[in-house]
Hints:
Elements: E1 2-4, E2 9-17, H1 30-40, E3 44-47, H2 51-63, H3 68-74, H4 81-91, H5 96-110, E4 120-123, E5 128-133, H6 141-152, E6 157-163, E7 172-175, H7 177-189, H8 206-213, E8 215-217, H9 218-233, H10 237-247, H11 250-254, H12 259-270, H13 274-288
Parallel strand pairs: 2-6, 5-6
Antiparallel strand pairs: 1-8, 2-7, 3-4, 4-5
Amino acid sequence: xxxxxxxxxxxxxxxxxxxxxxxxxxxxxxxxxxxxxxxxxxxxxxxxxxxxxxxxxxxxxxxxxxxxxxxxxxxxxxxxxxxxxxxxxxxxxxxxxxxxxxxxxxxxxxxxxxxxxxxxxxxxxxxxxxxxxxxxxxxxxxxxxxxxxxxxxxxxxxxxxxxxxxxxxxxxxxxxxxxxxxxxxxxxxxxxxxxxxxxxxxxxxxxxxxxxxxxxxxxxxxxxxxxxxxxxxxxxxxxxxxxxxxxxxxxxxxxxxxxxxxxxxxxxxxxxxxxxxxxxxxxxxxxxxxxx
Length: 292
């Protein structure tokens, strides 16, 4: 698939009427209004705010992969019932491959500014959709990139907006994709060294290629994604250490000890330093900890 960056990119808008004037509604209420509108049509809705942080737990459990990016995103793991329930509900509507692709896009967009995940996840038995709330504000580059990369992966993202009695939202948003990619590239270059993809785990140089050629070649993104998946599923020292722990009497080594004692036990039994012990314990708890 090729996308011509010289041609404006259109994103459709789901619109819902309300019997209020625009200045009578606090902009922060728009998301709640749209949520209720979708629910009135028989859809279930979920917030997109915590998608990346929560679903990274699923990704880590599946791949046993943790790098600097994931460690920063997850921090010190603590079991969270709400996060687990959120994940279970999403895994009922998204297969793991879709989750993995969305997490990949979140990761790319984080290097632009933040993950930029859509505001709402809307679904019923026939359809699962991702929607950004549109209130007339400028659309940030990371969100535009999220929409573009999702399209390449076969996921169409739209905007949702409210039609007021005195103000009509547009039927579609027209985006200058080349300008958006240039803005994204400028932000990205302040955060990462694009010449060293090993530092971030993703080769992001496809952005430069797309801007120079003024077109998007889907194969560039798919290649970068496949390389990341291969990296995430490859063997590494952390995975080996956790596997070794599983062959030992882990309940005796870790037991109900406090964290400092657990770390000391891991250092003694696995022959690792403190930083490695912290990583092993964090990965172990993500994989094995259950509610008390």
